[in-house]
Amino acid sequence: MNTFEYHAGVTVNANELITLTYKFVAGYCQHGKSNVGAEFEVLIGGVAVPGMRSKQHGGTTAADFPYDSNCGGCPDCYSPWIELESQLLEQPMSGKLEIRFTNNGRNMHLVLDSIAAGAK
């Protein structure tokens, strides 16, 4: 696992949602193999935000947006924008906003368009 600090000093109130819009390309595919893909989750203050875990992005076929040409991809063949939405927060959260990657033998190039919190 690798953790990237996105922003320090974030506070999100109870009864708010967090939305994150991203696109990705997944690397280290092995054509014809269906290995577990890379994924990420969002943390605030070292605690996982409920519902803010991506699906696993495998990159094993062109439909998985691979980086590797032998799997039908290319380095700039990013996915369309994807919106990830948290569950409604039951308690306030504060601290560093981090993104934790679990690569599972892969890698993921992640591009963030936006991340925001607000009432539903």
Number of strands: 7
According to CATH, what is the topology?
A: Jelly Rolls
Structural class: mainly beta
If strands are numbered along the chain, what order do they take across the biggest sheet?
Answer: 1-6-3-4
The largest sheet, given as strand count, sense and whether it forms a barrel, is: 4 strands, antiparallel
- Strand-residue proportion: over 45%
Q: Helix and strand succession?
A: EEEEEEE
Terminal residue distance: 32 Å
Name the shape in a single word: elongated
Number of domains: 1
Mean pLDDT: 88
Contiguous runs where pLDDT drops below 50 for at least 5 residues: none
Helical run tally: 0
Strands, helices and their partners?
Blueprint: E1 2-12, E2 16-27, E3 39-44, E4 47-53, E5 82-85, E6 93-102, E7 107-119
Antiparallel strand pairs: 1-6, 2-5, 2-7, 3-4, 3-6
Q: Mind explaining what this structure looks like?
A:
- It is a single chain.
- The strands form two sheets. The protein has a four-stranded antiparallel beta sheet, with no helix packed on it. A three-stranded antiparallel beta sheet has the order 5-2-7, with no helix packed on it.
- It has strands spanning 2-12, 16-27, 39-44, 47-53, 82-85, 93-102, 107-119.
- It has one domain (2-119): Jelly Rolls (Sandwich), CATH 2.60.120.
- With 120 residues, the protein is an all-beta fold.
